Amino acid sequence: MSGIQAERTTQVEEKKQRDSNFELMRIVAMLLIVLHHLCQQGLWFSAENSHSLNSNVASSFSVWTGLLGNWLFILISGYFGAVTNFSWKKVFKLWFQIFFTSATIGLVLYFLKTPVIGFSNDGYPARSFFEAAQPMTRKDLIRSLLPTLKSNNWFASTYLVFYVFLPFLSLSLKSLPEKMHRNLIVTMMVMGTVLPYLWFQQMYVASKLFYFILGFYIASYIRIYNPGFLESGRKNLIAGIFLCLCFGAWNFVMVSYGERIPFVKNHFAFVYLYPYGGFEKIPVLICAVFIFGFFKNLKISFSRFINIVAGTTFGVYLIHENLLLNKIIWHRICGLDKWTSSSMLIPYMLVVVPAVFACCSAIEFARQIIIERPLMRLLDRK
Q1: C-alpha triplet 57, 59, 63: angle, nearest 5°
Q2: I need a surface site. Which of 76, 118, 121, 248 has the fewest CB within 10 A?
Q3: Residues 110, 115, 120, CA angle at the centre, nearest 5°?
Q4: How far is CA 129 from the centre of its chain?
């Protein structure tokens, strides 16, 4: 099938309503990201964290989940972005969501004089959250009012820029035959996942936007050509779970026994984070593709509830990972410091992650009803 024929096929598909299997994947991806941030902002920097066996097990199955969730979001965006008509209204809607969430949180915390770490992270994590937190400064407030210019949330800022590029990326598919499309993916993967490990090269360093574009071409290839290795949802699920278990086992071994191995001890950051410590790590990308393939083939009936919840996931990201609010959520509201050495840590994580997701989802849904929808209707009249 040529690129032009594929484009015609996908234009027909675009008219269909998004299936709930993809929307369910959004929810799962965000739960993985929330789990990662619990570890990143809570377990790693908890005043009570003694690096016990219990804590090591918990972090082993949460430290890599954030990047996996990010890749799933990127693949979903590429899968639908390949056939979605570009709209400046959508750009404004996306920017306004980022701005409104950041500005509201900043203003509330500033006028309530709530102790926060601040954007500078002064004294943290060298000291605990409760020792390092101070009332917000005017500098923090101003930065919260400029979330995209200051890149307060790297994913949100990169996604906004990526969306502006979408019409050009989609247009490129028209003149991209299957073989060239596949070769482009291979070339980008070599540049993005192999070159970074050649310590002597200074020719190229990929940006996060590069990996968003790589995800677009991978997902659009899946949508247009439906490669055979992704046709079996069951096999994809088994492969994805197997890789996830490998990540967890690798993390646990490195954290628990890495210092006993001279090479690992001397190169701990490189060895420990090799499978999943950045977008340039190909194992976690492969895992994301397999999981994407599973949800793509998952047959579930349309669910309005799933689709509504999935529509709040980006808002969940913006709220729970706001740089002024995230540590307050984990240390003050959720009281994670009291649980890190508890035998109930893992059950606690299984409860608190969905709870944080649900609360942030409800807040975002309220924002959509009260603020966003009336604003969009007003813009439609003009």
Answers
A1: 140
A2: 121
A3: 85
A4: 24
Using only C-alpha atoms, the chain has a radius of gyration, in whole angstroms, of 21
Helices (H), 15-153: 20-38, 53-60, 65-81, 88-111, 129-132, 138-144
Pull the structure tokens for residue 224. Answer: 């247009």
DSSP secondary structure of 356-382: HHHHHHHHHHHHIIIIIHHHHHHHHH-
Q: Which of 216, 242, 244, 215 is nearest to 65 (CA)?
A: 244
Tell me which DSSP letter residue 18 carries. P
What is the pTM (predicted TM-score) of this model?
0.88
**3-state SS assignment for residue 65:** helix
Cβ contact 59:273 at 8 Å: no
* Residue whose structure tokens are 């060895």: 271
Reported as a single tens digit per residue, the pLDDT across 230-268 is: 988 889 999 999 998 888 888 778 777 777 777 777 766
Cα dist. 259→10, 59, 266, 272, 310 in Å? 52, 17, 8, 11, 42
pLDDT single digits (tens) 48-57: 455 566 667 7
Residues paired with 116 in a beta bridge: 134
Closest CA to 209 of 265, 251, 168: 168
Break the chain down into helix, strand, coil percent, rounded to 5: 70, 0, 25
